[in-house]
Amino acid sequence: MSNKLQGKVAIITGGASGIGEASVRHFAVHGARTIVIADIQDELGQKVVESIGPDKCSYVHCDVTDEEQVKSLVQSTVQHHGRLDIMFSNAGTFSKSSQTVIELDLAELDRLFAVNVRGMAACVKHAARAMVELNIRGSVVCTASTCASSGGDSNTDYYMSKHAVLGLVRSASKQLGVHGIRVNSVSPFVVGTPMLSRYLEKEAEEAEKLFEPMTSLKGVGAVLKAKHIADAVVFLASQDSELITGHDLVVDAGVLLK
Fold it and tell me: Which PANTHER family does this one have (predicted)?
């Protein structure tokens, strides 16, 4: 068993499925003392706790669009576990429609920004406050996207939201460096998560195969999986990246090279 995260207390939002769930499992394998899963998918979250063990993780219902719930999440974690070393702000959502600029539905944009931008900012804010108060040289990791480094033919609101995540990460890393707190992001290309499957109305593996031709890296194992993103998150959360901050780690099998 690895000890990259030995003794660390972590919160993972959106931890009940997809990249979040894979990261919860990776954190446990790498020795985290406890992982708090925060999500609105209560049944799935409880199943993850049962499969890993309540001695290693717990579940808290938290809607990141409600700042009071985020604040309570952080406070309860510190109260029960004495500290907070890692915040993986991962909870996110996707466009419900194609969302071109000309047909942009601003109400839908507000819905998406409430999760992807406002919710992300609330998680970084309250995690950082706790770390500063406890004098912890912590690590904050946010989920961005390869969409944060490009423009799109549609899904304008989603592209905009992920660009905003990079702005948050770069600003927070500059401001929090004086406290020894590192802030980074991970930018995945398409991964066959339940959210993608619902959006495309396809099974995860079928959805992944649609995007495989876009990658530059070919061969067995070159299809991106949630575990590949979780590996990157563990790296950014651990001392392996102790002098890395304000960085966006792209995990895309070479898509952005094209």
Answer: SHORT-CHAIN DEHYDROGENASE REDUCTASE (PTHR42820), SHORT-CHAIN DEHYDROGENASE REDUCTASE 3B-LIKE (PTHR42820:SF21)
Spatial contact of 18 and 193, defined as CB atoms under 8 Å apart = yes
Greatest C-alpha distance within the chain: 52
Establish how many alpha carbons lie within 13 A of residue 93's alpha carbon, considering only the half-sphere containing its beta carbon.
Answer: 21
Residues with catalytic function: 158
Closest CA to 120 of 93, 99, 147: 93
pLDDT tens for residues 62-106? 999 999 999 999 999 999 999 999 999 999 998 888 899 999 999
Cα 144 from Cα 186, distance rounded (Å)? 6
Residue 252 to residue 254: CA distance in whole angstroms: 5
Contact 165, 185 (CB under 8 A): yes
141-188 tens-digit pLDDT = 999 999 999 999 999 999 999 999 999 999 999 999 999 999 999 999
